[in-house]
Amino acid sequence: MLLFNLDGVISTEASISVLDRGFLYGDSVYEVIRTYHGVPFALLDHLARLRASAAYLYMAVPWDDAHIIREVERTLAAAPKGEYYIRIVVTRGADQRIGLCPEPTTQPRLLIVLMAIAPEPHFNSAGVRLTIAQRQRTSIEALDPAAKTGNYLNNILALLEAQQHGFDDALLLNGAGQITEATTSNVWIVRAGVVETPPPSVGILHGITRATLLEILQQLEVPHREVILTPADLASASEAFLSSSVRLLMPIRQVDETLLPCPGSVSQRLWDALLEVMENH
């Protein structure tokens, strides 16, 4: 089931101009939120990141948070009861003619998409199989991955290439050979009882679920750190997992030829703690 809210108009169909810059150039920003018991989780955090991404693109967001929240709530109210994937998109809008530089009169547009998902989050104990992508992660100096923009071709190509080789997803390295993240998820490993995840400086999206897990690790007094990781570090990992707003937490069972215990005890403990946080949100 899909439902759209385009500039305040809720419908089962929506369309934009072929001159829209989000369509032509990926000149847009977006956020993905999931509901839990019908309530969007960490919506304000996502909106803060949306605005940071827009600022990075020199893009104005003319609606305040209260307006966007109202539109999300209106769209959810128009949908059948259930759990939803919510995508909030702000595109720079349509120019009058094709050109790389935005026209001064171009007006942003707000799109909210709902897609039904499973009624309860599921911990996938089978895990996923990853490969180290040959394609490099876009560098911070070129297009900072911390900005969640509509330009996702780097990730799409890495995912397609991984799937062509029989894997579920890819881990992307930066130009220095350091692990950054998977195509739509942050990555974590556990070594010698310490939970480790790459720091923002290597070129990652500042994941909302990642931030929540860091808070949970602090509260549970589980040893953890942000640290630069390389593929060689995977051989000494006792377990590994991915995190994202929709997947929440996904165990990793294989990276190329390296097999990992799946699911690990830390992954299971963090899954339970994450659901408790979401329950009380």
UniProtKB/TrEMBL annotation:
Q: Per UniProt, which keywords does this protein have?
A: Aminotransferase, Pyridoxal phosphate, Transferase
One Pfam short name: Aminotran_4
The coiled-coil segments of this chain are none
Please tell me one Gene Ontology term that the record gives under cellular component.
cytosol
Q: Which GO terms describe its biological process?
A: amino acid biosynthetic process; carboxylic acid biosynthetic process
Q: Which domain of life is it from?
A: Bacteria
* Gene Ontology terms for molecular function: transaminase activity
Q: Which cofactor does it need?
A: pyridoxal 5'-phosphate
PANTHER family in alphabetical order: AMINO-ACID AMINOTRANSFERASE (PTHR42743), AMINODEOXYCHORISMATE LYASE (PTHR42743:SF11)
What's the family? Belongs to the class-IV pyridoxal-phosphate-dependent aminotransferase family.
> Any idea what this protein is called?
Branched-chain amino acid aminotransferase
Origin organism is: Parathermosynechococcus lividus PCC 6715
